[in-house]
Amino acid sequence: MKKYFVSTMIASSIVSVSYAAEVNYAQIFAGKNACFILYDLNKKKTIEEYNSKRCQERIAPNSTFKVPLSLMAFDKGVITESTVFVWDGKKREMESWNQNQTPRTWEQYSVLWVSQQITPKLGMRTIKDYLAKFNYGNQDFSGDKGKNNGLTHAWLSGSLKISGEEQLRFLINMHNYNLGISHTAIDNTMQNIYLGKLTDDGWDWYGKTGSGRRNTSYQGKTERVRDGWFVGYLQKSGQTYVVVTNLTDIKTPTGSEHDTSGGPQAKAITQDIIKQLQLK
């Protein structure tokens, strides 16, 4: 990960940038309460933002929490790049989870049981210290009310919440090595969230999805809605952007759409928007 000196302040107004194509955000996010932010690290400003009100709303980070958790674990020495997380033999819903894991596959396959091995090793006090150092959302790691399960469930549609704007600030500071942790912890984490080439014109992208489901009230009824995240970076030839997308269904989805998790949907939408913007 190349380091550039950037300000940690986010532009208060959105700067209009001319692209080869206009993006119809309302159409892309139809039926969803959603946020999209594209931040130019070189110019130190937000150049695209959809739904600023939503971008200030906190929701659970879900599996995007694996990014700060990785930073904590590498910085504290709880894991190294050669760590192997041994599968306990229990069959879980994702086939890719049913095997030994590495720090790279933990991020790649978003393996929950690995996170739930790491958090107890770090301990509540250490995690809270890092959350404060990272200024990460509401920093509430207590878990579900009355269940005393913060170490294993706080980030899973639970007590820990963060907004799109706060994710952006965290990612800017991570890129700028401005989190008060070792450079190695950041470099290892970046390596493990590398996703390959985003477009044919050579943009490398890095990032993490997050998916969750929760109950909410809609028109007097309880709806089971999805949350989805994609957070990460785009890099090419010295140019770096930070991208943050999140979405929540306005009401329970129907049909085959109901079976799609929010994180992969947020990732696919992000990819579509970036391709439409035709960044140079």
UniProtKB/TrEMBL annotation:
<feature type="domain" description="Penicillin-binding protein transpeptidase">
    <location>
        <begin position="40"/>
        <end position="274"/>
    </location>
</feature>
<protein>
    <recommendedName>
        <fullName>Beta-lactamase</fullName>
        <ecNumber>3.5.2.6</ecNumber>
    </recommendedName>
</protein>
<dbReference type="InterPro" id="IPR002137">
    <property type="entry name" value="Beta-lactam_class-D_AS"/>
</dbReference>
<feature type="modified residue" description="N6-carboxylysine">
    <location>
        <position position="66"/>
    </location>
</feature>
<comment type="similarity">
    <text>Belongs to the class-D beta-lactamase family.</text>
</comment>
<dbReference type="GO" id="GO:0008658">
    <property type="term" value="F:penicillin binding"/>
</dbReference>
<dbReference type="InterPro" id="IPR050515">
    <property type="entry name" value="Beta-lactam/transpept"/>
</dbReference>
<dbReference type="Pfam" id="PF00905">
    <property type="entry name" value="Transpeptidase"/>
</dbReference>
<dbReference type="GO" id="GO:0046677">
    <property type="term" value="P:response to antibiotic"/>
</dbReference>
<dbReference type="GO" id="GO:0017001">
    <property type="term" value="P:antibiotic catabolic process"/>
</dbReference>
<feature type="signal peptide">
    <location>
        <begin position="1"/>
        <end position="20"/>
    </location>
</feature>
<keyword id="KW-0378">Hydrolase</keyword>
<dbReference type="GO" id="GO:0008800">
    <property type="term" value="F:beta-lactamase activity"/>
</dbReference>
<keyword id="KW-0732">Signal</keyword>
<dbReference type="GO" id="GO:0071555">
    <property type="term" value="P:cell wall organization"/>
</dbReference>
<feature type="active site" description="Acyl-ester intermediate">
    <location>
        <position position="63"/>
    </location>
</feature>
<dbReference type="InterPro" id="IPR001460">
    <property type="entry name" value="PCN-bd_Tpept"/>
</dbReference>
<keyword id="KW-0046">Antibiotic resistance</keyword>
<dbReference type="GO" id="GO:0005886">
    <property type="term" value="C:plasma membrane"/>
</dbReference>
<dbReference type="InterPro" id="IPR012338">
    <property type="entry name" value="Beta-lactam/transpept-like"/>
</dbReference>
